[in-house]
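Contributing: when you submit paired examples, paste them exactly as shown. First protein:
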Amino acid sequence: MGERPYIGGQAVLEGVMMRSPGSLVVAVRRPDGQIAVREEAWETLWPRAKLLRKPFLRGAVVLIESVWNGFTALAFSAEQAESENPSASAAPAGLAPAPSERKSTSELTRGLMLGISFLFMVGLFIAAPHLLTLGLFKLLGRDPSLKGLLFHLVDGVFRIAILVGWLALVARTKDAQRLFQYHGAEHKAIWTYESRLPLTVESARRFTTQHPRCGTSFLFVVVGVAVLVHILVLPFVPTISAIGAVQTLFVLVLKIGLAFPVAGIAYELQKRSARADCPRLLKALVSPGLWLQRITTVEPTDDQLEIALLALDRALAREEGRPRAADGVQVYPDFAVAAAA
């Protein structure tokens, strides 16, 4: 059999986003029980920069695009969560009038959100572990030299602790539990597709909620790669100032710069680990990322699986040149009508 399109996804508020190479589809169950589906063609953010699509460079670009797509999908799902029930009875064949096709949020707003998220991630997963490690070494009277292996290992331990703690804290909220159920539904739907089974609830139920290409696993792989890269690179960092704060700031800036090649390497490793012929050693190294998904995925209900499968089916239909609807938003009274459209 030929190679099938690569599909990725993300859970959103009461729904799922699925992206194929050339399309992006978001399906959301509204408070009134209706289902809103947004379909659109998708293009890379930098279509002419082909160099950025090369192995070990594409990881950072894919990460930025994923966050960008995620903001778009989340904004749409938030809009649908607040939507009033349109007069569906006036629509032919059970199809409710489509909302305006205006963009969910302006590119300026999405750019601002992307920038804020970047600063948050830098502060939480780069600056905080480094400063905690620095403080611990000084508290214990040890030399906090970047040339030593121990500093980078402790920094990595702090990163993992912050990552697990942050996820565990988020998971305690009621809204997160619903989101994590849709996360599990997204994974089950993709497993069904990758196993070449019919895209039905019955097929999807049998699969695990954990998937090796999940963003949660990616974060863990990033931590491991970062420790290795820092061990190899940072011992050669020159001292530019005798003032500790200045030197620390300089090192943090370097770590931010290294985050891009780190993401590129982590992306290639995770992608390789998802293949059937992945070496056992690599599978063992990335397996803790799957354990983390026990926090971020929850067993979904059948109606949540319906949403994930619907989004996946619409993305595949577009990829195969048989779109079910034009670009824009359509609202259906229930899953049966949406699936039959």
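Second protein:
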Amino acid sequence: MKHLRELLFPLIAVSAAFLVGGVIVLLIGDDPIETYRLLIGSALSWPDGIGYTLFYATPLIFTGLAVTVAFRCGLLNIGAEGQLYVAAFATAWVGITFAQLPAWVLIPLACLTAVMSGAAWGALPGVLKARFGSHEVINTIMLNFVAVALASYFTQYHYKNEGDAIMQTKMIGLIDTAQGLRGENAHVPRIGQLVGWFPERIPLNISFFLALLACALVYVFLWRTKWGYEIRATGANPTAAEYGGISTRKQIVLAMSVSGALAGMVAINEVLGYRYRYYDGFSVGYGFTGIAVALLGRNHPVGVLLAALLFGALIRGGLFVDIFTDRVSKDLVLVLQAVVILFVAAEALFRDSLGRFGLLKRSKV
């Protein structure tokens, strides 16, 4: 019963958001039913709709989990955007610098680089918070700008092909052979390369399964290990945790490091599985959308997965709404996301309203 109640409020928030979105579509003179038919239908079509929905959901799973781990420690990680940028560039650097390595060495090395560079960038505001009491929100926001600027600088002046008008690095894993240039030894396979019935042109790759594995591992880490318990205890009541012998400083650094590592895994999807290079400006706000995903998912790995799939579907469907409707643009997706966040934030209002009808116990506050 408790789990059903936890699902109730996100469902109310999503339903309310779609209702508000429908009213907005109606006010601007378009058909809400046709708009939502395009939005949902295009996201669930086979194979392109589902394939791209899962592809768009993959980075949101990683960033949603990143925010969840930090939040469970009482921290708000606004820096997942910077952490994934650092990880993406570092991953591309490894793929370029060690291109001569065989695939069975280079791919794991690049994946490890994505995780470790994200963890290091996440640990920095964790150390500042634990050691000096600096607020993690301010630190992570500022570090976002630093991360993007550093990646842009090194791309522009050191790792971009000469004459390339696009701000992007050279291709990863590119080596000269007797047959010419080859660069596949740094690529993780797409689903279409593994199963013949799925189109190879769809960029969905095995990092999606890594995201599913990450959901399971985060659950085990937070609810089945000593470290996870100490992180949650620190987030629930740091004073009581200290009294119980838990070093809250260590937990802050650990939580931010794990959070950064999860955000850094976006690079596996982006660099190793999609573009095969670092592309400046590749993120469409994955780190910030991850906050909404975590909020809607109730800061639980299962909820994060479901919320990321919803947001991935909205991103996919928004493209078709933009093309095939008269007045509605893909910005409707941003409106729906914003309204969902507003309704999730207004959970107390829903609890009191349901309490009036006897569906839940009213809050005593």
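If you have annotations for the second protein, write them as plain sentences, like these:
The mean pLDDT is 89.
The radius of gyration is 22 Å.
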